[in-house]
Write a structure and sequence with these properties.
The structure holds two protein chains of two kinds. Chain A has a two-stranded antiparallel sheet. Helices cover 61% and strands 6% of the residues of chain A. Chain A contains five helices and two strands. By secondary structure, chain A is mostly helical. Chain A has two domains: 64 residues, Orthogonal Bundle (Arc Repressor Mutant, subunit A), CATH 1.10.10.10; 41 residues, no CATH class. Chain B is α/β, with parallel strands linked by helices. Chain B folds into two domains: 208 residues, P-loop containing nucleotide triphosphate hydrolases (Rossmann fold, 3-Layer(aba) Sandwich); 61 residues. Chain B is 24% helix and 30% strand. In chain B, the strands form three sheets. A six-stranded mixed β-sheet of chain B has the order 5-6-7-3-8-9, sandwiched between helices. Chain B is elongated. Classes of the chains: A mainly alpha, B alpha/beta. The interface between A and B is medium-sized, with 19 and 19 residues.
Amino acid sequence: MQFHLDQRSGLPMYLQIVQQVKEALRLGLLDIGDQLPTVREVVAELAINPNTVAKAYRELEREGLVDARQGRGTFVSSTLIASSLEHHESLRRALLAWLAEAQRAGLDAESIHALVSRTLREALDRRAA
Amino acid sequence: MSALLDTSALGKRYRRTWALRDCTLTIPEPSIVGIAGPNGAGKSTLLGLAVGLLEPTEGAVTVCGRDPRRDPAALADIGYVAQGAPLYRGFTVGEMLDFARISNPRWDQPLATELLARSSSATQVSALSPGERAHLALALALGKRPALLLLDEPFARLDPLASRELLRLLMEGAAEIGSAVVVATRVLTDIERVCERVVLLGHGHVGLDGTVEELLASHRLLTGARRPLGRIRGVEEIVRERSSGRQLTLLVRTNGPVADPTWSVEQIGLEELLLAYMAPEELPSPQPPEPSRLRWHG
């Protein structure tokens, strides 16, 4: 798989890599047993710090999604397809209810968007800290 | 294990001027460290002291526990590319490689050859473009497999494409060797995407030192209505204050979340953060002219 980074997204780069791997796991683009690109391959492609890639892979390992095998590389050990889809519908309903409440409170689409992205960023910040 | 680079109260004086003073830094493990600061801040002096080219006026510096001026063995651990990537202009690329192989005990010929795969070894150094020359100088420094790699303004004369290529080579080398990399640069944007820690020098002193994550997490930009400033919950220190019309913008160092709804709280980028620390007093907030006092000159 190939990673792409957005330096202006405000999201730390290692989390961007984590999210892209998860996205690929959700979409079924990566399956159990597949190998992630080596640290050096990612570094050579994106010109980023090797520690950033290592940190992302450690985080994925901590979440039980990949296995690092000494000297061989990092391999997918779990998939996200089922677990995420089954929750989508109930989360979507909760979100619709929240959106209706936000509209009643007088927020327009732009304010809602700003509030959501700010809160998401702060939540991710806290998780990263 | 001793630190890769360690300086304590390090200072260098030229006649009456201190180029660097009271500089205490430790790089305990392999990481990418940016030394930022304007011209004359002491960046090159710090690198020159670390590589043993300069004698400290006071304090001490060690690389992997050894004094680079007293212990020649220390030099094998240090890779250094000076400003402008100076090389022997009359040599060919191949002769530069031979020279490096003979003069470095831990020389890694396969690595250097791999990193230089795209250059022809028959090319004369004087015929290389600035980007190719920077590439060669960096590959030669990496071929030593140093524990500590020091680069002085490596991107200064390069166009954006050549800069990115050089950064790619630097990161590939760092991944392969596992060395600490110290990059002195005026333009931090060149290395922002790879930098884990930033040391800001100003007038020969360390003005700021921290991991990029810490620095970004602990600073916020507050915007709100102009008002007399009291204590703001969550704010440790106001770094810069600017006002324009009825609006007040503060760059603050925080010690907790700023939840006061009368301030809009934004994150700040690394470059803007460093600029604010570089010259808080040299960037006065523009005072809006009051109409009654407006005067025409000329």
